[in-house]
Amino acid sequence: MVRKGWLQATAIVLIASGALVACTKNPVTGRSQLMLVGEAQGVQMGTQAYQEIKGKEKTLSANDPFTKRVRAITERLIQANNLPNYDWEVNAFQNDEPNAFALPGGKVGVNTGMGKVAKNDAQLAAVIGHEIAHAISHHGEERISQQMAVSTGLQLGSAALGLSGMGNSEQMTELMGQAATLGIILPYSRTHESEADEIGLYYMARAGYDPREAVKLWENMSVMGGEKPPEFLSTHPADATRINDLNAEMPKALEYYRAAVGK
């Protein structure tokens, strides 16, 4: 009975979420995207979030060597790929966690810890290119839109369960939430990561950075180890999956690279 109810509830979530689709196209890949948040709203949220991060993290000075390095690489990526004329802002943060991000509207941040994993400028360009790809692809706005749609679907599903008297509505709502996470939110997030890997690979190649260094970067990340959840429970593809996917795109990326460096 619970299984039947779970399937019916899941169907309600999927139908309700699908009914809210406002499709746009990824500006780079052409993939259809659910977009309930406009670009201007996304830029506003990105700017606000960036200010909050700068208020919490230790921002390195403009004269710091790592800041100069990060800004030079980012500028090279922007110019080589004719990226949108955002109000770009690039900062480095004193933080040992190997992390980087790019928020809607061109707000880029790179932790000093990433400099220990990215062994050279090309590997750092792979990181920054990946993060910029998220911003250009409006992945942040799309993720918020997905969560909005799922939340609305869960509310509708919960209301329908209450009206139908189908079992324990609180338990069923929890099951619907788990189904939505595994069936909608996590796979979409992995799609975003894979898409950013591909686009970022092309970005770095067009800027004259050897795209083969992107594979070495993820090999470095893999060596860092640590317990990781199974891929289907993770928001990110497994390291091996990322490396395989990057290698599959490498012939095209190498064409861009050779054209950029004149080889």
How is the biggest beta sheet arranged? 3 strands, mixed
Report mean pLDDT, rounded to a whole number. Answer: 79
Total DSSP helices:
9
Give the termini distance in whole angstroms.
Answer: 65 Å
Total number of strands: 5
| Tally of distinct domains | 1
Beta-strand share of residues: 5-15%
**Helix and strand sequence:** HEEHHEEEHHHHHH
Provide the helix percentage: 55-70%
Low-confidence stretches: 1-21, 179-187
Radius of gyration: 21 Å
Quick gist of this model?
The protein has 263 residues and is mainly alpha-helical. It contains nine helices and five strands; from the N terminus they run αββααβββαααααα.
Question: How is this fold's topology laid out?
Answer:
Elements: H1 2-19, E1 23-25, E2 32-34, H2 39-56, H3 65-80, E3 89-93, E4 100-103, E5 107-111, H4 114-117, H5 121-136, H6 139-164, H7 169-206, H8 212-223, H9 239-261
Parallel strand pairs: 3-5
Antiparallel strand pairs: 1-2, 4-5
Describe this structure in words.
The protein is mainly α and 263 residues long. It is built from nine helices and five strands. The strands form two sheets. Strands 3-5-4 form a three-stranded mixed sheet. The longest helix has 38 residues, at 169-206.
What descriptors fit this protein?
single chain; 263 residues; mainly alpha; three-stranded mixed β-sheet; two-stranded antiparallel ribbon; 9 helices; disordered N terminus
